[in-house]
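Practice record 12: protein with protoporphyrin IX containing FE.
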Amino acid sequence: MRITSSGLSADIDLDAIDLFDPGFYATGDPHPVWKLMREKAPAHRQTLPDGRSFLSVTRYADVSTVLRDHTRFTSRRGTVLSVLGGTDPAGNKMLAASDPPVHTAMREPLNRVMSFTALEAQKPRVKRLVHRMLAPLADGGTFELAAAATAFPMAFTGLLMGLPEEDLDDLARLATMAVAPEDAMFQEGEVGENLVTAHHELFEYLAERVGPSAGQDNLIGYLVGMDAGGRRLRHDEIVFNSYSMLLGANATTPHSIAATVLALIEHPEQYARLREDPELVASAVEEGLRWASPANHFLRHAVTDTEIAGTPVRRGEAVVAWIGSANRDASVFTDPYRFDVGRSPNRHLAFGWGPHYCIGAPLARIALRLLFGELARLVERLEPVGEVEHLTSNFIAGIKRMPVVATLRAGADEVLAAANEENRVPR
Ligand code: HEM
């Protein structure tokens, strides 16, 4: 979806807006709509032609409440709009689709291996993957940034999960199909079939990897052996959680990269600041996350009759927390439509809030900081050489095509040539 900087919201009829329509995010711009909702309709109910309905919350305070308060808003019935009106087979089996205490029993042991400290040792390997990603820039030709940004997280997830390198391209394709089944670029059949095919192939693949053959030194092996509140996870729970890790990393990280690069291209003075001051890398990454909000929404269902934003919510009703909107809320962010690589404070909700706060956030931050640190060190300027195309999805705010050319900085040739050499060696 486009990311406007004006935030103007004139002439919008909220009743005519379809926030469910995946196409709206491919060609439209939800930001002016969300701005109007934050101002005039902070809890907005939409009913689909088939009778299903959901309540949208758009203010920072309400989005964080819905994401955090599992006593009023459960994750067990699924957390994305695509499950609206149905049930989630992963309910109570997968981290993302469970509530405490079931959730806590799975989450605590996983926190130990997904922390900054635990992942410190991975940094040199992730940095090599950054160089491999940027290596093609050396030839000065067109670089398909969106494709490169898709391959990079799959490479570091592969490392983490112990997946064979030759499977990664296929897994990246299936992961995008699973989160954007409506997008023609990833279509392999009818829309409905696409989702089923992606799920079937991913689950079949992961089910085969779960077991003693998973090995000890990777995340799947850890899930097999870990103590989840006094018991081992069952086979189906391990498969669901492996799926969640794979999707969690690969549905979101590519789009954070592409949207941040696009913002840096559109705001060259911000890229200049970053190039000149490597100390800004961490805050630039956070601003990129706020700006992109790659996980556009998460869904909950009301556990009891309750209220949000002064509006009654019926027991069982679906409530959508629009993260992309919360991250532009002027009551929290000064001048929210300004892209500022030095923004501080920046308490964005791109990784969610509360018990489900993204467990992959430390890994994502390590990878994004290494990537943008190296980009600023090696690349003087990036220019678009074709149209930027956005993903058709109400869940992932994504970029699927973004051809660019780069002007390199002094010394970059050597680094990238070494990485190119490494890319040529079969692994
Ligand atoms: C830029 C990158 C990422 C973004 C924007 C992102 C965003 C999010 C958000 C918003 C949530 C909260 C979901 C909810 O409240 O229901 C979440 C949860 C989760 N993420 Fe991420 N994520 C990213 C990277 C990753 C990575 C690298 C991994 C895995 C290695 C991952 C795995 C997960 C998992 C398993 C959960 C569920 C956690 C739980 O329910 O306790 N994510 N992510």
